[in-house]
TrEMBL record:
Keywords: Calcium, Carbohydrate metabolism, Glycosidase, Hydrolase, Metal-binding. Pfam families: Alpha-amy_C_pro, Alpha-amylase. This is Alpha-amylase. Ca(2+) 1 binds at N103, D197, D203, H238. The lineage of its organism: Bacteria, Pseudomonadati, Pseudomonadota, Gammaproteobacteria, Candidatus Kentrum.
Amino acid sequence: MNGTMMQYFHWFYSSEGELWRQLEQEAPGLREAGITGLWLPPAYKGNQGPTGMGYATYDLFDLGEFDQKGSVRTRWGNKDEFMRAVAVAKAQGIEVYEDVVFNHKQGADETEDVTAVAVNPQNRNDPPPGQGREQGIRAWTHFTFPGRGDQYSAMKWHWYHFDAVDYDDNTKSAGTIWRLKDKSFDNPVGRDLGNYDYLMACDTDMENEEVIAEFTHWGQWFTEQTDIDGFRIDAAKHTRFTFFNGWLDHLRGITRKPLFTVGEYHDYDLGNLQRYISETGGRISLFDFPLQNKFHLASRHGGGFPMSQILDGTLTQANPTLSVPFVENHDTQPGRGSFAHPVEPWFKPLAYALILLRQEGYPCIFHPDYYGAEYTGQDNNHVTLFSHKFLLDRFLDARINHAYGPQYDWFDHDNVIGWTRLGDNEHPKAMAVVMSDGPEGNKWMNVERPDALFHDITGHIGDAVRCNADGWGDFGCRGGSVSVWVQE
C-alpha cells in the first residue's frame, strides 16, 4: 500500500490541551481514509509550558507529567493522553513520528557566570568589527528541572554543554550571539552566515560527550516508553549532521525497527539538501522545500508559471526515495510572519495531486488542508484556511487503489500537464491525471487499455472518456484545476 503521512497540527492550533484527545478520536477515520503515518508535534515540555509549541526545548523527559513551566500538561495535553493517542493510532496501523529539537534548549532554571566572545552575526566565524576580546557575561545555562528532579535522567545542564547563547543577564541585553569560552561552532552544518550552527537560545554542543550520551539515553528511553516509529528532526540545517549517524544506528539497532526519520532542512537549494543526505549516509529523508517553493511560486503566478518544469530542481525528482514532498507546513502557513511561504488555495488541489498520485516520495498532508482552520496570525490578521478534504479523500482513494505500476509523463506544455499510471498485478486499473494552472485543456495520453472507459473522480468533468483501440484517450481538465481519471 502506498504510504501517506499527515502533519497532525499547525502553528496556531488550540493551546487548550486538546490535541492528544482529538487524535485518539480521529485515528480510526484517518486510517480508513488512507493515512499511514502521523507526524506529531514535540510531546515534551518547552519553555512556554502550556502555551508553547515545544520547539523552545526545556525538558525532553517531561511529556506532560511534571509541574514545570507553569503547568503539568503541554500545549497538546498530558502524558497519559499522549500515550493513549499513540497507542490508538498504532493499533489502527498508523505509524507515529515524534518531532524532536536537539539544536537548542531554552528556559534554564539558574544563571552561570561565563566567559564569552561576541560573534559577527553576518559571519559567525568572526567577531564583530572592532571586537573579539573575551568578556564575562551571566548566562541562563543551568538546567536543574526542579519539577522532575532525577526521574528518568539525573543530568543537569551547565554552560559547558553549550556552544553559544544570545542573552547576557548582567546587561539584560538580547540579540548578541556569545560564543562561550574555548567553544567552537559545530560542523558540518549549513554554510549560511559562515556557519549556521547557531539558531537561538542555548545552542547545544553536539560534540560534547555528555550531551551525546544524554541525547542517546533520551532516544532509547523515549522509544521504549512510547514504541514510536520514527522522528522528525527540527532545525536539521543547524544541528551537526553527522551526530545523527551514530544516534540513529544505535536506536535502530536496539529497537530492531527502521525508525523512519525525516529532517527539516529549510532550504530551497537542492544542492544543500543533497549535501545533507551525503553527510548522513542516506539515513534521513528530507522535506522537499524546493518543491514547496515551486508550488508557492506557481500559485502566485496565476497561469504564468511553466508547469512543464514544476519538478525540475526538486528533491522529489533528484532523490525520490529520500524525499518527503509537502504543500504547506506550520512554518510556511499564512500568518507566520517572515517564515510564511504559503500556497494559494486554488493551486492546492494541483499540488496535492502532484505529490499524492505519482510514484516519487513519501507525501505529507497538512492538518489544516484536510480539516480547515481559522486563527489570528502573528501579524494580528484573521486567517482562514479552507478544507480540501473532499478532493483529498478522493486523491487518497486513488493513491490506495490506482497509483501503481509504470508512470509516463506528458510534461510538454507551459500550462497543461499530465501523467498516467498503468497499474500492477494487484491493482490492475489504470489512471490518468491532467491539470492546468491556466485555461482548460486536454492531453492525448496512452493508458494501454483499449476501449476502456474512464471517469473523473473529482467530479469536475461529468462525461466519461473512452479509449480507442490502441489504448489512447483524450483526457481533459477545467481551467486552474485538476482531473483524475480512473478506469471503470
